[in-house]
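User: Structure tokens for both sequences below?

Assistant:
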Amino acid sequence: MTSTTEQFADVSATTLLRFATAGSVDDGKSTLVGRLLHDSKSVLTDQMEAVEAVSAQRGQDTPDLALLTDGLRAEREQGITIDVAYRYFATARRRFILADTPGHVQYTRNMVTGASTADLAVVLVDARNGVIEQTRRHAAVAALLRVPHVVLAVNKMDLVGYQESVFAAIAEEFTAYASDLGVPEITAIPISALAGDNVVDVSANMDWYGGPTVLEHLETVPVSHDLTACPARFPVQYVIRPQSAEHPDYRGYAGQIASGVLRVGEAVTVLPSGRTSTIVGIDALGESVDIAWAPQSVTLRLADDIDISRGDLIAPSANAPGTTQDVEATVCHVADQPLAVGARVLIKHTTRTVKAIVKEIPSRLTLDDLSQHPNPGQLVANDIGRVVVRTAEPLALDAYADSRRTGSFLLIDPADGTTLAAGMAGEAFASKAGPPTSAVQADEEGWDF
């Protein structure tokens, strides 16, 4: 009998690679992306003409390829990347979705957005400056988000005379740091994005390097999108009750399968209520099917009329997740206002949003040596730290290490809807935080979960 993975190999197999670029200011991220697009023949004629026109207005003799990604006017005027720029391109071997993330420290939080769904992260380093704090920050974010592949692109090798010793020293330092973070695979490539060395074409200036170019690595790195091997998770988005003459008794639960496989006849549990039933029908694209798998959007029909609403999670009874009101997680703080102990927040997990209180901030990560600064009291923009959150209602959380989809959540300001932090449930790459020590105190407004 074939396994689930083998049965759906043809469905999950894909030539799509999602990757993100990151690095410090002026490391050349936008130039690298522009070079990738230009040299892989992925730039439209009118786009190139616009870049050439702007470059000529600036008095530049050659086109500034960074302009292919710096789309905002403020970005072009300042010569920096502010927002996450998404680009889509393809070669004969693979399709790509690229997220070019900002380099400024105040925009590090944008990397969380770009890397949250990435299969690979390209971290750029200026060969003249080596590994700096922002480099370590980006490596930490990539490791925290469980990005399985990291490429260290040592850029501007032309400005250090293409010296192998410079590249080797940077690669050794970064690899040691990223390995301590738990990054499973690190590939170091010496490049010059401006000159095109080792980006798409092999460099004639670094014959001492025998590895792949950036594009060759992107085309060949093994990527698995097989969500069917994970336990099935189905967050309910909408309850369908037509109550029409044609469908007087129809009751369906619509949503996208986050992971795993669901089958007609399978016993399932609805969380957080814990009620059980059996799948009697699966509707996909207007037709009834016997089986469905992630990431399909389907409607489930159950044997029993159970009180189910948006935010509930349907999972096979054999491997349903546990529920908790005490969430211990690592978060990347992305808001301008600090996140302090005692803060009242909303926590959004899949399609469920509930009230919560930040009960404790046990530690904040120190990026220089990966040590934990205990009990900081609050987290500010771009901080990475451990939090303990008490929720008003139980959540069916998986560990982020097991599922990036159902192990992640957002902390939201209930007053204005601002996203405060991106959270990853369970243990992170850093050392374990100690057990909660603060006493649970009732809130005068009733947020005393």
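Moving on to the next sequence.
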Amino acid sequence: MDVNAIRQQFPILNQEVNGHPLVYLDSSATSQKPLQVIEAVDAYYRQDNSNVHRGVHTLGTRATDKYEGAREKVRRFINANSTAEVIFTRGTTTSINTVAYSYARANLKAGDEIVITPMEHHSNIIPWQQAAKATGATLKYIPLQANGTFTLDDVRETITDNTKVVAVTHVSNVLGTVNPVKEVAQIAHQNGAVIVIDGAQGAPHMKIDVKEMDCDFYAFSGHKMCGPTGIGVLYGKKELLEEMEPVEFGGEMIDFVNLYDSTWKELPWKFEGGTPIIAGAIGLGAAIDFLNDVGLENITAHEQKLADYALENLRKIDGISIYGPEKRAALVTFNLDDVHPHDTATVLDSEGVAVRAGHHCAQPLMKWLDVVATARASFYLYNTEEDIDRLVDGLLKTKEYFGDVF
């Protein structure tokens, strides 16, 4: 990978923040956008702006072709069987909520179980809490090991014949843990359960094959993988989606409407009520083209080197606590002794280094870690070892500053 050439495709990186060249280490929250994506969205609004599916004029046809072309790009990107299995949503949160409302509430009853983990993002906890309350099902958690992983024995002991839904993150947004989702899917299916995978931190960084992992549902967001905000994907096995009812009703998703009853369009459109996120889908398609051109395998290898380099160098700092397993995705979550992570992030920002600080929408995991909040540096294809050197230098200055204060 020619990282310097890649960086030139991201105009936002070519700026100074607080008098220093920007080092952006917050891609787990949202990634930056390459020119290819920015120009694709701009071209749609400049040349093709029209609603899709409904018009027969030239602009409508061009917009529809680009929108549905993006769906085909997603299908190939995740290796789904059909575009009927690719639902465009606002993002991972909407995708998971769609499953929790449409599938879980229709199929769960008192005595059934929903199994998740303590490392989940709030978006993969709260929908299942609400589904459990609505149906009388029981919410259960796979226990975590001390290093922030779980074992397959933990999974087998938690999932039972009463389990109907297993929901697990592909990659933890706090710990960097890469979960064995294929093996979890096998255990879920052996017990008659479906599996829902939160792929928000997986799809941007590694090759995804929904058929190979045999997941029932996979959710991810465009804005974390070089695409626009406000667009995401719900993959679902066709036989499951066909049985599910829509969660939004109105134009676009209907087949026929009379005064007292209506029928729905076929997949995938029955889940896409109203004017869809046309520009977002087109931008996501352009982002997929960009990632494919770079190569997901190349991105994964580059990020692994960055993660290893970051761990090696951050551990040289006295008084730093690093959370998560040794083998991890491209992020490091940490705290400096006696320094609140918000203060750490503020000092780093004064040095032009952008990191995330807070509970990262993972308050149950913060409680498990016995902390209120943490700082997190997350890496992507445009980051370099020099970026990590700047992070380390900024942390040393943070320690020096707060050492002088106290």
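User: Anything stand out in the second?

Assistant: The mean pLDDT is 97.
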